[in-house]
Amino acid sequence: MELAYWNIRGLAQPIRLLLEYTGEKYEDKKFECGPAPDYDKSCWFDIKEKLKLDFPNLPYLMDGDVGVTQSNAIMRYIGRKHDLLGKTEQERVRVDIMENQAMDFRNGWVRLCYNPNFDDMKEGYLKSVKDVIAKFSKFLGDRQWFAGENLTVVDFVMYELLDQHKLLDATLVEAHDNLTKFMKRFEELEPIKAYMASDRFMKGPLNNKMAKFGAE
User: Which percentage of the chain shows pLDDT scores above 70?
Assistant: First the structure.
């Protein structure tokens, strides 16, 4: 497989974690945008229309003759191959809900991180996101994983989003014991633990160079 994305964690990090957990062999192809003020992206734009993709975009995953774009579609593609989309109907419904709630969560995060007025917006975001994270905590409850007893693709997405928010303000997650335990449980999965200890694991940057937070 070939996974391609910018040289950041961003949308690709949950996919990287999922590929590592499932033991898939893959090339982690990273595009680098230029420095300020132009942030040149020609390294991507020069080739995107030459790829055999219906909707060329980053991230993309190439698996033989199969080309997949859109991060959730990539997660589901890998999830189907490894039975990580829920074992029961109730789990599958919870996966569907969490997939979309997590994207709303991420969209709000991205709006903050890339906003030129980040410093002015941060306090208001921290106040409002506490309620959002509290709802995720309530949804998880005393379950092992977000869908239920079984690990699914949404756990990879939620782990990454919670980890990024911890870097903004650790208390956001630490206020919820079940979310803290969820993250520790995820990190202790043997393939994840090995990946995070390796030199292949990307600790940063979270966001691209034009971001006001997480670009370091």
Answer: 100
Nearest one of 118, 134, 102 to 214, comparing CA atoms = 118
User: What φ, ψ does residue 170 adopt, rounded to 5°?
Assistant: -60, -30
Q: Which of 90, 87, 84, 172 is nearest to 135 (CA)?
A: 172
Q: What is the pLDDT of residues 125-150, one digit of tens each?
A: 999 999 999 999 999 999 999 999 99
Model pLDDT, residue 180:
98
> CB 48: neighbour CB atoms within 10 A?
15
For 89-194, the fitting CATH number among 1.20.1050.10, 3.40.50.10170, 2.40.40.10, 2.30.40.10 is 1.20.1050.10
Report the distance separating Cα 71 and Cα 60, nearest Å. Answer: 8
DSSP character string of 68-110: EESHHHHHHHHHHHTT-S-SSHHHHHHHHHHHHHHHHHHHHHH
Domains 2-83 and 89-194 fall in the same CATH topology: no
Bridge partners of residue 67, in order along the sequence:
62
